[in-house]
């Protein structure tokens, strides 16, 4: 994988990529979970970078041309201009974050006609995938794993304060029918119980949902990923 810094809309993003990004083949774009926004229930982390980046490990199993797009202020950029804990706590899915990630992704792709994209978001990365896809244009698919697609229902379930600076995909207009959606969920997921995404699914009746009886929030996506990739692109 090649590592680089890419400018978005007001923020820098750490990006890992593999393969020819000027290809006409479909590119897989991996979006990580929230990492470590809080060190404890009452203490904000000074660096939200994930200690065990599951989406990056998924990308390592993927032979397709791929991009791992980091969020603003992650991967050593927490002290960069414009960064503050607001952007990895209440506004972690806010317009500033979404717009900058869309801009950074577009900067990585050919301006004369981007190839088809599949946004693959794990946990909170799935929230960002659902918010980014309608803003990208072109041929886009959305695949999420264990994603909290109704962030209000997720916060209420855990007794957290709602994320006042974030966009809730369940409150947005339905994602266009031209964007294929596949949402993978674990029946044993206590962090994002499948019932908490019911309102999002009702707003997006064309979306596909697949429930894995033996999976929870982290297990067993890595084990299942090679077979799921064949399903996606087979």
From TrEMBL:
<protein>
    <submittedName>
        <fullName>Alpha/beta hydrolase</fullName>
    </submittedName>
</protein>
<dbReference type="GO" id="GO:0016787">
    <property type="term" value="F:hydrolase activity"/>
</dbReference>
<keyword id="KW-0378">Hydrolase</keyword>
<dbReference type="InterPro" id="IPR029058">
    <property type="entry name" value="AB_hydrolase_fold"/>
</dbReference>
């Amino acid at each position: 994988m090649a590592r680089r810094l890419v400018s978005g809309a007001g923020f820098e993003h750490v990006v890992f990529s593999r393969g020819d990004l000027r290809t006409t083949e479909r590119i897989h774009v991996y979006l990580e979970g929230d990492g470590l926004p809080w060190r404890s229930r009452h203490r904000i982390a000074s660096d939200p970078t994930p200690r065990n980046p599951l989406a990056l490990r998924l990308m390592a199993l993927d032979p397709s041309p791929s991009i791992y797009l980091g969020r603003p202020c992650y991967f050593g950029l927490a002290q960069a201009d414009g960064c503050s804990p607001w952007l990895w706590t209440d506004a972690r899915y806010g317009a500033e974050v979404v717009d900058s990630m869309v801009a950074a992704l577009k900067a990585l792709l050919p301006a004369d006609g981007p190839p088809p994209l599949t946004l693959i978001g794990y946990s909170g990365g799935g929230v960002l995938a659902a918010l980014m896809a309608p803003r990208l244009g072109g041929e886009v698919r959305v695949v999420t794993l264990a994603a909290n697609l109704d962030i209000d229902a997720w916060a209420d379930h855990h007794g957290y304060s709602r994320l006042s600076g974030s966009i809730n995909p369940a409150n947005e207009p339905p994602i266009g029918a031209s964007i294929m959606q596949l949402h993978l969920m674990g029946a044993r997921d206590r962090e994002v119980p499948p019932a908490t995404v019911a309102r999002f699914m009702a707003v997006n009746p064309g979306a596909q949902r697949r429930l894995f009886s033996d999976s929870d929030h982290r297990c067993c996506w890595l084990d299942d990923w090679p077979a799921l990739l064949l399903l996606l692109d087979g």
